[in-house]
Amino acid sequence: MNLALLIARRFRKSREKTRYLSFISASSTLGIGLACAILIILLSVMNGFQKALETDFLSMVPHVEYQAVEGGLQDWRGLVRVAEAHEGVKAAAPAIRLSAMVQQPGRFRGLELRAIETELEPKVSGITRYVSAEDWQDFANTPDGILLGQGLAEALQLYIGDSVSVIIPQLQQGNALRAPQRINLQVAGIFAMGGELDFQQAYIHLATGQAAARIDTEASTVRLALHNVYDAPEVARDVAGSIREYAYIHDWTRTEGHLYRDIQLVRTIMYLVLVLVLAVASFNIVSTLIMVVREKQASIAILRTMGAAPSLILKTFVLQGSLNGVVGAFFGSLMGAILAALLPSLLLWLEQTLSFSLLPAELYFISSIPSDVALRDVLLVGGVALATSVLATLYPAWQAAKLTPVQALRGQ
């Protein structure tokens, strides 16, 4: 193997004198490097989206939620006790979910109101991560307070301390229509998650929601936070089998699961593209090595005459062609990992410089391109690049190993 590597390096150095072969060789190395870098960046972005979904978006969206079929839950405290007894449940908390409309002079805006218990909500929600401690305390101490998303507050030009009128539609009773309930609230705080929930959601106190919804019980839903968000369907069924409430069962895979499926679909496509792009980039190695074999026929004849076995010739050309893949995979993977780590900062600078947004917050669950470099992806891309490079050398190297001294000299 040492002799084959020595001969391969000698062939590589002598080949550099031929500009045409050097250009093709450099193109194959550059192609493999760029393919590795681009694929690592794309996979890192997909990892970033999945991490943002798990840690940010799903911290604001119920992992599992039980909603009363009509009116309120008869015993939400009992439901909380049963749920928290399950090993997969981290915590549970009551809420009232209401569809509402914010009215400002000349403007109306629909939103989802969540009436919460301020002492229990932080156990099941990441809301306190996106609001200052001072604003959260002010909201907790203001019975008629409302916690607005930043996007919604900016759209309605509302600030902390302002009064806001909220219209809540009422359920129909028999053939009679009930007039919408109008309540006046004070903006006690503003949360900023950085996604579409900033434009769609607001929080009020549980007692305020109970009066606005005109329900007899204290809560209409119970929200669960899970240790593993991907266990949501199973945990939802297990807990539902242990409660006596008639309730609709919601879990995030049914309400927001399309986001996760989209991310996984794109990731799968990226893995397919990985193999195809690297395979195309490796074709240059095949063409380069075929021309090198033709150029080195005299050298092959001399080596065979001196007693070199076909296996030595095969190893020599496999190693020579693989050097392009090694160089391209190493530097491409290194460059891809560095650029993937810097990508969020680079895109943020680009958005600020050119005054545009790649992901408008009102349309997407996050407002910036995330990136999470995973070592397994770097090793996978580099490994596939090396594997395709070695496979690309096998046919030209096999042709070289088949040459006899007479055939090689006749070819000259």
TrEMBL record:
BP terms from Gene Ontology: lipoprotein localization to outer membrane; lipoprotein transport
Keywords per UniProt: Cell membrane, Lipoprotein, Membrane, Transmembrane, Transmembrane helix, Transport
Principal location: membrane
Locations listed in the record: Cell membrane
Residues spanning the membrane: 20-46, 269-292, 312-340, 378-398
Pfam families: FtsX (PF02687), MacB_PCD (PF12704)
MacB-like periplasmic core domain segment(s): 26-239
Membrane-topology annotation of the record: Multi-pass membrane protein
Residue ranges of every copy of the ABC3 transporter permease C-terminal domain listed in the record: 272-405
GO cellular component, one term: plasma membrane protein complex
Source superkingdom: Bacteria
Family, per entry: Belongs to the ABC-4 integral membrane protein family. LolC/E subfamily.
Protein name in the entry: Lipoprotein-releasing system transmembrane subunit, LolC/LolE family
Organism for this UniProt entry: Aliidiomarina iranensis
